[in-house]
Specification:
Elements lengths: L2 H13 L14 E8 L3 E2 L3 H10 L3 E4 L6 E2 L4 E8 H33 L6 E3 L9 H10 L13 E3 L1 H7 L2 H11 L6 E5 L2 H10 L3 E5 L3 H13 L7 E5 L7 H5 L5 E3 L2 H4 L6 E10 L1
Parallel strand pairs: 6-11, 7-8, 8-9, 9-10, 10-11
Antiparallel strand pairs: 1-5, 1-12, 2-4, 3-5
Length: 282
């Protein structure tokens, strides 16, 4: 069974472990229902709503699709099916749509704000996502114009402070990665000082992540990398504590990527509702 179907079954089981008690006291009828936006935003999540409807035998007519701007009052989809079934999957569908649309909308705003001052900057997600929802959350980031970064620990080497503490030095950690890495795998190193950035670049890192460093300290590190002729050897990423309020300060720097967990952990959901609008058959 595909993982998407397993997740959908689990979501519904979680919400109705012994069935929908309230729906069972009303007659079962064939109905038409609308999913309606209650706020403006960027729509994301229809790729899952299609799968949920297909899984439960509900016909869906998608009126507004992923990546489209929506306004309060817009009907984004029309559903046709058994009333008990539609009410069973209602909350799961709305929760998915509201959260993922919030991720896409927040990502788009981050991208727009950063690219006003640096048209080439990438806004990337992190691995700070809810377990089981990462694949969908990352897709919402992509829909919002962001970069997905790593999907998992298997995607690239990302050497952090705990790895360095165990191994003994940044240089040794990079050497060990180089010895085992396929040519297809990049090596990224998290740094917190100018000295650590220089050490990582000299040791052969492909990407340097400035972790929780101020714009001033990052600028000093970049100047030193340039002075030593190392800047063009590496991609530079800023991460940690970057918000909608300060992203422009980081985007002005000579960096390539800004990664933030705000877009996946703290997006404002786009409110939506589901309304049964017609009894098609008694």
């Amino acid at each position: 069974m595909p993982i998407e179907e397993m997740l959908i079954d689990y979501w519904i089981l979680e919400d109705a472990p012994h069935g929908d008690l309230t729906a069972c006291i009303i007659p079962s009828k064939f109905v038409r229902a609308h999913i309606i936006a209650k706020q403006n935003g960027l729509l994301a999540g229809m790729f899952i709503i299609r799968k949920i409807c297909d899984r439960f035998g509900v016909r869906i007519n998608v009126l507004r699709d992923d990546g489209e701007e929506i306004s309060a009052g817009d009907v984004v989809a029309e559903l046709l099916g058994n009333s008990h079934t539609i009410l069973l999957i209602e909350r799961t569908m709305l929760n998915i749509l509201m959260y993922l649309s919030g991720v896409a909308t927040t990502t788009k705003r981050f991208v727009e704000k950063a690219r006003k001052v640096n048209p080439k900057i990438r806004i990337a997600a992190t691995r700070k996502t809810m377990p089981g929802l990462r694949w969908a959350t990352k897709e919402a980031v992509r829909i919002g114009g962001g970069d997905t970064h790593r999907y998992s620990l298997s995607d690239c080497y990302l050497i952090k402070d705990n790895h360095i503490r165990v191994v003994g030095s940044t240089r040794k950690a990079i050497k060990l990665a180089r010895e085992k890495a396929s040519f297809t795998k990049l090596i990224e190193v998290e740094v917190r000082t100018v000295e650590e950035a220089i050490e990582a670049a000299l040791a052969g890192a492909n990407i340097i992540m400035f972790d929780n460093m101020s714009p001033t300290d990052i600028e000093r590190a970049i100047e030193e990398l340039k002075r030593r002729g190392l800047r063009n050897r590496v991609l530079l990423e800023a991460s940690g504590g970057i918000t909608m309020e300060n992203v422009e300060n980081y985007a002005r720097l000579d960096i390539d990527i800004i990664s933030t967990s705000v877009i996946t952990l703290n997006p404002k959901p786009v409110d939506m509702s589901l309304k049964i609008v017609q009894i098609v058959e008694e």
